[in-house]
Amino acid sequence: MAARCTDVLRHYVLLSFKVFSRRKFFTAISIFGISFTLMVLMVATAMLDHAFGPGKPELKGERILVLGNARVSGPHLIINGRPGYALLDRYARNLPGAERISFATGDPDTSVPVFVNDRKIEPVLKKTDADFWQVFDFEFVEGRPFNQAEFEGGRRVAVINRSTRGQLFGDGPALGRQVELAGARFDVIGVVEDVSLFRVEPFSDIWVPYTTEASTAYRTQLLGNWTAIALARDQAGKEQLHDEFNSRMTRAELPEGANLIVAPFETRFEWLARSGPFSDSNDPESQAWRFALLLVIVAALFTVIPIVNLVNLNVSRILERSSEIGVRKSFGAPALTLVGQFVVENVLLTLIGGLLGLALSSVTLRAINASTLIPYSQFTVNLRVFGYALLLSLLFGFISGVYPAWLMSRLHPVDALKGAMK
Amino acid sequence: MTRHLLRLMWNRKRRNVLLCIEMFFSFVVVAAIAIMAVNYASNWFQGIGYRIADVWNVETVPPGRTDLGEFPEGTGRTFGDIVAAVRTLPGVQAVAAVAIAPYSNSEARTGIGLKDGRRPQISLNGASDDLPTVLNLEIVEGRWFGPRDASETEYPIIINQRLARDVFGDGGAAGHLLPEVPPPLETQSPQRPWRPQRVVGVVREFRKGGEFETPRNYMIGRIDLSQEQFGNNLLVRTAPNMRADFEEQLQKTAQSVAREWSLSVRRLEDDRRVSNGLYLALLLVPGVIAVFVLLMVGLGLMGVLWQNVTERTREFGLRRAAGASVDAVRRQVLVELLVLTSFAIVPGVLIGLQFPVLPIPDYVVPGRVIIAGVAVSAVTIYLLVLACGWYPSRMATAIRPAEALHYE
Fold first, then answer.
1. Which site among B30, B65, B68 would you substitute to test the A interface, given the most A Cβ atoms closer than 10 Å to its Cβ?
2. Residue A308, min C-alpha distance to chain B (Å)
3. For chain B, which residues make up each domain, given as ranges?
4. How large is the ipTM?
5. Confidence check: pLDDT of B93 > 80
6. Which residue has the higher pLDDT, B379 or B9?
7. Does any CB of chain B come closer than 8 Å to the CB of residue A122?
8. What is the pTM of this model?
9. What is the pLDDT of residue B407?
10. What residues in B contact A255, CB-CB < 8 Å?
11. Residues with Cβ < 8 Å from A156, sequence gap 6 or more?
């Protein structure tokens, strides 16, 4: 039976290629549409994967939760932004379920001017603690991260990334050299590989201990520009620390004029949903599903046109082949066989288009990387993205093949032989 | 004849519906992008109201802001010290404070209840007395505010021409109080109590977001540097062609006065490039995708029409044999196509024309821009369809009637 099945399938495939080469124009425009559509979807998928999928330096990404958004509201005010250090210091320490918790400054646009030979560069500066280097697995080109003793002692030490090393010191080693940040000199003790802007929490150009800050004013602020990053012990620990922090928040001391603060530990995707399109939510439980739904709807709208286009082309193609169908029907081929043949043909076509789309998207992603539009982006078509691409192609081929196939199976053999269709 | 044509189309309804759906969605996509493009184009040709050549922006972040956005005592004094220090730099012609700098992406907006019941949305900013010198603002009525406007009972404001016309009509705005209903006491902020606002002058325009931003109502309040008020950004006008090390000098001078502040110095021209680049990317990325989608739709349409025409060779042959001219047959194909397209576009246009009636604020997209965008989209789709139908319609008449009747 299995042998027969593969035999039939092989027959279908051979037949398909015959049909493709007979109508080159149709095949070409179908493949153009399919490959372009799938290319756009794959580029989007690769970007999402780059931002939210596991990868360096977030090798333990599945156990990481971040607290990056706090919403304080009262009768006359709503403040939505990043939490301040005081909020983290008071409530986000010693959370059950957490292996380590790191505090770091948040926004990627906090840059600091550095003048090198009359030229100004503006590297992004992140202030953080020693645990940061345990939560994330940075790849060190040279040197090491700062340790607990250096952090507690407020030592002026800095870790920089490879690109910043190049800008500051050329290609040579940077260990033992100094960099001046806002009037203070820092010793470079480590150099790490560049981290993409899309990985918001680890991303920076220069990392220094936050204990080196001259002013201590930040320590009393409930809202500010901070992020807490928690590494949970395991999946259960994630829930435990999420729930415990939320319950601490319900008892939190609020600034004057406010009666509610919402600031949950979440994944980066959930954080993005909360700080972006659904920032009006007062619900400590995540709205990420709505965000995901929004993305799916946008993608579906985008694919409607190509799918209808392909269906139209396919319907036309069936009519052209109606005499073939008529002959096969009058010799007793069951409708299902014809449907099967047509769907296989169509899926094959989309797979060819999908492969082409994959090649195109790889070229596009390389161009985006080279353009440095997104700092240190390393968009790639990895195995995971390839899997998504395959799935997308199959789905696309199936959806656009089923309706024409159904039409075909309903053709009356006599009409079909005459080449007419109502 | 028309009824006959319609019947012919009705006979092929199932396939025509699919074509209609495809064209409808294409129309929607093109309309969305056309509205955006028309909006950008119409914004680009309106003046922004200021000139940014040789202007630098020093963005300041003082330490120790409290949770509710207040600054510790002395912040305004330090800010004033920075202004004074920067003024003494060689080459500096004027320095002004501004709350939201040109080309920045932050925006403050409020609705103000007027006595006639209207509630216009107004974008807000604050500026010191030197802003017109720094940015070359054109004052069309009244004057810019100055030290003599310091008052305990009123706030002096500058508004743009659009807002002046909107509130005061053509009667002139300078010197008048804004006809505003005081908000209820409990919603007033204790830090900045409500006071009547007097318009001291009208500027031609002030479009903070730059060339691509949709023009909107604008109001600028006074930052009084002599009262040690804080102003977020310093705008510095210099002599043309400053040396490359001016930026470093500016940075170091400002930093030496405010050691704990975080300061960032940029040319406004650089901010303009970044900001306009972002606006353009928002149009170009979907635009390029849409062009390819249209190409795909066009090619697909051509394939389908080609197939249709081949299939109907006998029908056209019969018409030719019965005496119809080549042009008449070709016209039949194209008219059928246009009627079909209209079935997709007319509902689309009707939906599109609802938008200007909806309460979409003017500062997002003005209604006339939506209408223009919808029209551009409809014309684009018709042209696309005609272009794709041209070759198949020629094919329909390429065969001689006698052959066509024999055709199997």
1. B68
2. 6
3. 2-46+275-405, 63-260
4. 0.77
5. yes
6. B379
7. yes
8. 0.81
9. 58
10. 67-68
11. A184, A185, A186, A187, A208, A212
